[in-house]
């Protein structure tokens, strides 16, 4: 809301400086975001941010009223034509009826004859320029001027263009349309309210007039409308038609039905003054159900209960009266307050308490701390797990990233993922129209971006939500994605996985070869925990890398962290440090290439018995000394008992059991 | 003889203390235990002693010889090691740093915010990012035709399902499940259909706070946010409340912290106002209590919200919100 300072001062004496007034307004809830100096108009303009509940402040007089509350000066209301009650006389000139009184609570009008359409005088044109409204002609400009002055939207029709001299406020009919003043044709529907003449709509109620009844140079007689339309209906129509105006903006935020006629008379006064017109004495005024002042009971002790302070009663009453409210009854514990109808936001006791707090000053309310119980246990279980995970990954040298939740089918396609994701009906662009189903596409984009900046040794992770749709219900899961590039191999990403699982207290997991479209054919695996698949790990396939224009090898894992959660144990139970010494024995052998480490380990663990504490692979060798399609593997086995010191004999027995099993089951050749 | 041995030992001990060059050590070695050294010549004299004295003095002399020899090699080793260090180590060469990972600045700030509220007896709760209109708007006293919706341009999945535009729906979800007392904070990702610029992003993060009990007041809201401000930005931080409007709180406030950069004097960061707007807050509107079947006559509560990016930008002097989502390692590794 733009408020020219000189204009404002016409309605109220201001003793304070411009800056002081701006500060006072800001601190009472009308934020002065900016003060602009218009040197050509010799004017300062306050740019005031009016909150959605304060429709009454969308006018210069509204702001003046607010200053009245804050400074105790009185608002001087501008001159207007005398109030004339509705009279039979005017009914011969125009026939007005409201068909839907739920959408139009009051409709008033005046007929002004013999106006001379001209450009506005400079004082008027300059005022409009100061509030960013383009001057058009004296009549239209006066309706806009009074709109800015009083907050009451007005509209002037060319009286002679109203067919049948009949005005009906009704819902639009199916298939009706109107060409609005912005010269574009609008298709109307049943839930929109229009002003219609005998034949067709001549205005979209509260939003914009039609071009058919526009004021033009030939106009001599006008019908001036001042009305009050339903906020919700105007808003819906404005949204549907994607058409808004200064009028619709104010109707959406609530216009005072009791201000309709005074604004009409004010405009008529100005038209007589500046456009030579002569107003018909009587007015049209259809107001089926009078809007009364809100009558609210304020319990004094509720102020203390909500705000935490006692405000002395005389101070309290002073604030209420300064707000322009009336005190109807005043007893020991209660005050009955009448609220003027322009304050449509004040309907309940709590609204009054806010007004009192606002004027008393939020910063004058004492600061306290909440007392009483709390059932808090701080972090939730899942949160502890994600925090632990992030600590582990940081320790592994990984940098955390935050990427967009939006993706598109092309991106999903690039990584071989299905593009069946949750779709956004009104995305900012087609490249952001699907909710991500995987963190992999963005991980690869981020890797590419960093490679472009000549960074090597890239180790990244993201923990974020992914989204799925299942029979019109929506599911969110927390996924973890880790990607590494640089001097690394599959075993680095696998090492990260093992570290994560170990540190999260997950003892058993298993990887098995499984083809995934995003990975190369021989380096692609699924991760299982207790038989449940929780994620995938591998090397990104050349095909995918090509689409991302990445020349480096990328190793990556993605885990459904929500699914992992129930296996996590963050409170390890202490195990006694071993008391008795360990014996170590090595074993080295050649074996066929196709036998996996896992197969060998399984046999060794089983054959060794309970005195095997640990088995470590320490060497793999392939070379001239080894048969082709064979490899040499060397393990170090640690034997220990927690009950006694093992004898050499016991250890030797176990070790040779292992040797024998390996020979019999895997056809190894021991190397001595 | 005994006296002579003692004298030699003392002389040796004195001389060796003042040696710093290996060549001097060698001289000493020759002087004492070399073929023509003092000890060697003394040993030769032992044969002339009586049979009783021979083993006694022989042992004494041999012990001394061993000691001297050991002492010399000890000194030599020590001199050599000092020499090697001085000659080869340039401690100004760069250290070898272990690669440590980093948490995203938004994670760090969120954790910091949470820790402060844990200390005030709050606990964390979460809610879905895909929300219903009911939780995002209606239960928060923001019906469809409410102009307050203008500030919440939303991404829709269907007519009634959208991406949450704030973390406030979590308030409703918590109160539906739990009876007072309630003290929760809800951090999370939010979405608004805003064009991206230096201070706006269609994807952003908020923390929501809610406390409901039989005796919660506006003064308590001020107290909690004041303690929060001081813990986050330092003891000297002041807090300012200004009336504002949200459909789900009444009274409603906008709160600001005194500028961390200029301490309230006015600078570019605070646009010369001395204040940094942080978020919205207020007392839970009775209409909201009605939606979750809380008795507004019995319970009162406060709620507040803040933008995590906003706080991170203030804290780390970041001027462009887009940095958070670019994931440039040169940026990420600074945290």
Descriptive notes:
The complex is a heterodimer of chains A (672) and B (335). Chain A has 672 residues and is an alpha+beta fold. In chain A, the strands form eight sheets. In chain A, strands 19-22-23-27-26-25-24 form a seven-stranded mixed beta sheet, with helices on both faces. A five-stranded mixed beta sheet of chain A has the order 4-7-10-11-12. In chain A, a hairpin with a 2-residue loop joins strand 22 (458-470) and strand 23. In chain A, helix 5 (122-130) packs across helix 6 and helix 19 (597-608) packs across helix 20. The longest helix of chain A is centred in the last third of the chain and has 19 residues, at 648-666. Chain A is elongated, with a radius of gyration of 40 Å. By secondary structure, chain B is α+β, with helices and mostly antiparallel strands. Helix content of chain B is 42%, strand content 19%. Chain B contains twelve helices and nine strands. In chain B, strands 1-4-5-9-8-7-6 form a seven-stranded mixed beta sheet, sandwiched between helices. A two-stranded antiparallel ribbon of chain B has the order 2-3. Chain B starts with a helix and ends with a helix. At the A-B interface, helix 7, helix 10, helix 12, helix 13 and strand 19 of A face helix 5, strand 1, strand 4, strand 5 and helix 8 of B.
End-to-end distance of chain A: 92 Å
The general outline of chain A is elongated
Task: Say what oligomer this is.
Answer: heterodimer
Greatest interface: A-B, 87 and 82 residues
Q: Spell the H/E element sequence of chain B.
A: HHHHHEEHEHEEHEEEHEHHH
- Which structural class is indicated by helix and strand composition of chain A? alpha+beta
Give a count of the beta strands of chain B, DSSP E runs of length 2 or more: 9
Q: What is the distance, rounded to the nearest whole angstrom, between the alpha carbons of the first and last residues of chain B?
A: 76 Å
Sum this structure up briefly.
The complex is a heterodimer of chains A (672) and B (335). In chain A, the strands form eight sheets. Chain A has a seven-stranded mixed beta sheet, with helices on both faces. A five-stranded mixed beta sheet of chain A has the order 4-7-10-11-12. Chain A has 672 residues and is of the alpha+beta class.
